[in-house]
C-alpha cells in the first residue's frame, strides 16, 4: 500500500513539476529575463510570508490529523480561528515590507505587490484543509488538490498569450483566482471525506497542542523558507533583474529534482506517526529512506549531465548562463532532497525540533556565504553558498537520526542484495501502476 501510494505521489508530483516547468519556460520566453525578474520580485514577499506566519501549523496539522481518535472538527475550527489571525498579521507585515522592497520600481509594481498579498489568507485556509486530508491519508485527493494551481497557472498563461493580454498585472490576477479555486475545492473535499457536516467546536486544548508542536518546527520552516528565498532576496538587492531572471530559471529547473523526495515525505510522515512504538517507527523510516536514497543518486547524476543540452533547447540561448548555476544547485538539491525525506521520518517520530535546528543552522551558513560570495563571484558564488548550506543540513539530520537509533550505516549504505531488492520492488510497482 505504501509503495503504491508513493508511486501515485511521484506521478502527481511529476505532473505538477512538468506543468510548473512548462509554465516557467513559456513565461521566461514570452516575458524575457528582465520582466521575469520583476514578476519574481512581486510574488516573493507574499509567498514567503504565507509560510512565515503559519507558525509550523502545516506540519502540526498533518501530525495530529494522522493520530487515531482525535476530534477533527475541533482541529479544523481551531485552525480557522488561528488562520484568521495569521492572515491579518501576514497582510500587515507584507504591506510594510512591500513598500520597502519594491521602492526602486514604479508605483504599479508596488500596487501589484500589495494586491498579491490576498494570496496569503487564501493559501493558509486552503493549505490547512489540504494537510488535514493528507494526515488522514486521503492521498489521491491531496494529489488532485496539489495540481489545481500549477495546471491552472500553465493553462492560464497560454490563454493570456493567445488572447494577447499576457502581462504582469494579469498574471497577478490569475494567481489570485487560482488560489481562490484551490481553497474552495479543498474545503469541499474536507467536508465530504472527513467532517461531513458543519458543527463549530472550538477547543483551546487543541490550539495549545497545535501551537506547541508547530512552534517546534516553525523555526525550521522559517529557516527552510529563508534558505530557499534568501538567495533571490540578495540577488534582487545586489544584482540586476536580468540576473534574477537567469537565476530564477536555474532554481526552477533544479527544483524539478524534488518531486521524488516530496512524494516520499508525503507518505513517510503519517506512516511513521501511526506506528505504536519507536522501533517500528525506526524500521519504517529506514525502509522508506533507503528506497529513495538508491534511486536518488542515479537520478541526480543523470539530471545534472543533461542540463547542458536541456536548458538551451527548452528555454533558449538567452538562458545559457543558467547551465553552470543549475548544475551547482542540483548538487545541493541532492542533499536537501535526502534531508527532506529523512526529516519526514524524524517528524513522524515526534522530534520536530531537530529539523528546526538543522534548518536554522543552514540558514545562518547560507546567509553568511551568500553575502560574501555574491559580490566576488556573482550567481556562481550564490549557487555554491546554497549548495554548501544544503549539505550541512543533511549532515545535521543524519547525525541526529544516528543519536535516536537510526544508524547512519543502515541509512546510507546498501548491500548488493538490498539494491537488487529495491530495484525489483520499484520495477514491479511501476509496471503494475
From TrEMBL:
InterPro entries: Poly_Biosynth_Transport (IPR050833). It is found in: Cell membrane. Keywords: Cell membrane, Membrane, Transmembrane, Transmembrane helix. Its main location: membrane. Pfam families: Polysacc_synt_3. The chain crosses the membrane at residues 12-32, 38-66, 78-102, 114-133, 145-166, 172-191, 292-316, 322-342, 354-374, 380-401. GO terms for cellular component: plasma membrane. It is a multi-pass membrane protein. It comes from the Bacteria. This is O-antigen/teichoic acid export membrane protein. It comes from Arcicella aurantiaca.
Amino acid at each position: 500500500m505504501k509503495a503504491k501510494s508513493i508511486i501515485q505521489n511521484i506521478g502527481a508530483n511529476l505532473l505538477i513539476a512538468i506543468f510548473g516547468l512548462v509554465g516557467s519556460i513559456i513565461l521566461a520566453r514570452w516575458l524575457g529575463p528582465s520582466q521575469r525578474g520583476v514578476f519574481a520580485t512581486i510574488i516573493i514577499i507574499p509567498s514567503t510570508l504565507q509560510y512565515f506566519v503559519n507558525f509550523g501549523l502545516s506540519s502540526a496539522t498533518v501530525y495530529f490529523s494522522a493520530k487515531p481518535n482525535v476530534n477533527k472538527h475541533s482541529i479544523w475550527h481551531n485552525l480557522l480561528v488561528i488562520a484568521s489571525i495569521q492572515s491579518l498579521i501576514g497582510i500587515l507585515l507584507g504591506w510594510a515590507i512591500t513598500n520597502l522592497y519594491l521602492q526602486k520600481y514604479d508605483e504599479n509594481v508596488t500596487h501589484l505587490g500589495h494586491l498579491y498579498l490576498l494570496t496569503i489568507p487564501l493559501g493558509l485556509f486552503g493549505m490547512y484543509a489540504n494537510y488535514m486530508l493528507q494526515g488522514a491519508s486521503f492521498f489521491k485527493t491531496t494529489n488532485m488538490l496539489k495540481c489545481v494551481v500549477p495546471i491552472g497557472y500553465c493553462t492560464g498563461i497560454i490563454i493570456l498569450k493567445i488572447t494577447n493580454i499576457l502581462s504582469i498585472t494579469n498574471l497577478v490576477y490569475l494567481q489570485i483566482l487560482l488560489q481562490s479555486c484551490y481553497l474552495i475545492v479543498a474545503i469541499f473535499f474536507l467536508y465530504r471525506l472527513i467532517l461531513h457536516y458543519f458543527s463549530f467546536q472550538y477547543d483551546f486544548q487543541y490550539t495549545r497542542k497545535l501551537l506547541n508542536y508547530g512552534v517546534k518546527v516553525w523555526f525550521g520552516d522559517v529557516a527552510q523558507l529563508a534558505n530557499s528565498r534568501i538567495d533571490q532576496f540578495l540577488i534582487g538587492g545586489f544584482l540586476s533583474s536580468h540576473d534574477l531572471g537567469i537565476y530564477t530559471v536555474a532554481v526552477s529547473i533544479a527544483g524539478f529534482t524534488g518531486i521524488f523526495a516530496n512524494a516520499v515525505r508525503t507518505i513517510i510522515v503519517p506512516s511513521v506517526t501511526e506506528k505504536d512504538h519507536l522501533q517500528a517507527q525506526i524500521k519504517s523510516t529506514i525502509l522508506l529512506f533507503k528506497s529513495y536514497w538508491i534511486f536518488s543518486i542515479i537520478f541526480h547524476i543523470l539530471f545534472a549531465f543533461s542540463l547542458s543540452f536541456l536548458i538551451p533547447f527548452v528555454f533558449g540561448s538567452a538562458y545559457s548562463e543558467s547551465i553552470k548555476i543549475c548544475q551547482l544547485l542540483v548538487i545541493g538539491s541532492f542533499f536537501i532532497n535526502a534531508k527532506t525525506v529523512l526529516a519526514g521520518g524524524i517528524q513522524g517520530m515526534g522530534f520536530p525540533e531537530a529539523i528546526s535546528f538543522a534548518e536554522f543552522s543552514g540558514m545562518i551558513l547560507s546567509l553568511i556565504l551568500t553575502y560574501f560570495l555574491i559580490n566576488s563571484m556573482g550567481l556562481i558564488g550564490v549557487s555554491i553558498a546554497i549548495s554548501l548550506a544544503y549539505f550541512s543540513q543533511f549532515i545535521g539530520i543524519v547525525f541526529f537520526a544516528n543519536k535516536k537509533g537510526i544508524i547512519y550505516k543502515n541509512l546510507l549504505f546498501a548491500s548488493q542484495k538490498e539494491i537488487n531488492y529495491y530495484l525489483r520492488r520499484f520495477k514491479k510497482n511501476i509496471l503494475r501502476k
